[in-house]
């Protein structure tokens, strides 16, 4: 239960980084929102990986190369789900991109990211 709560706090921090990058790129630099979603996801992923490895799952004694490879696989799936979700809500349902991102991030974070990070990426042997 503690790792789940830590993972949720890590998710909040990482999501804040993700959203900040995305919003700054769209609102201040007029970057297309899908490109900003990708850039934000990269910044959030770097934050999430470091905190997940060191603090949430305390898996810093495991092979970092193996974790990065596994994390990259999970992150790629997460990124694709996020892009599709944000696009669906924004372009098809005409929801503002920030609201689309919130809905998608929560759904993907709880149903995809946490489970795969705990059982696949940062599983301690």
Keywords:
125 residues; mainly alpha; 85% helix; 0% strand
Strand content: under 5%
**What general form does the structure show?**
elongated
Protein structure class: mainly alpha
Rg value: 15 Å
Order of helices and strands: HHHH
Task: Let me know the number of strands.
Answer: 0
| Terminal residue distance | 19 Å
Number of helices: 4
Helix content: over 70%
Residue windows where pLDDT falls under 50 for at least 5 positions: none
Mean pLDDT: 93
Please summarize the sheet with the most strands: none
Detailed description of the structure:
This protein has 4 helices and no strands. α1 (2-29) packs antiparallel against α2 (33-56), α1 (2-29) runs antiparallel to α4 (97-121) and α3 packs antiparallel against α4 (97-121). With 125 residues, it is mainly alpha-helical. It has helices at 2-29, 33-56, 64-92, 97-121. The radius of gyration is 15 Å and the shape is elongated.
Summary of the model, kept short:
The chain is mainly alpha-helical and 125 residues long.
Layout: helices, strands, pairs:
Blueprint: H1 2-29, H2 33-56, H3 64-92, H4 97-121
């Amino acid at each position: 239960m503690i790792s789940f709560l830590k993972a949720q706090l890590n998710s909040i921090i990482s999501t804040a980084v993700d959203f900040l990058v995305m919003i700054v790129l769209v609102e201040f630099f007029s970057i297309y929102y899908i490109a900003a979603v990708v850039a934000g996801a990269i910044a959030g992923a770097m934050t999430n990986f470091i905190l997940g490895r060191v603090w949430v799952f305390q898996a810093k004694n495991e092979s970092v190369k193996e974790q990065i490879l596994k994390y990259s696989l999970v992150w790629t799936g997460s990124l694709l789900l996020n892009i599709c979700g944000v696009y669906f809500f924004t372009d098809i349902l005409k929801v503002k991109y920030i609201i689309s991102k919130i809905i998608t991030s929560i759904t993907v974070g709880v149903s995809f990211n946490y489970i795969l990070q705990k059982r696949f990426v940062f599983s301690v042997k």
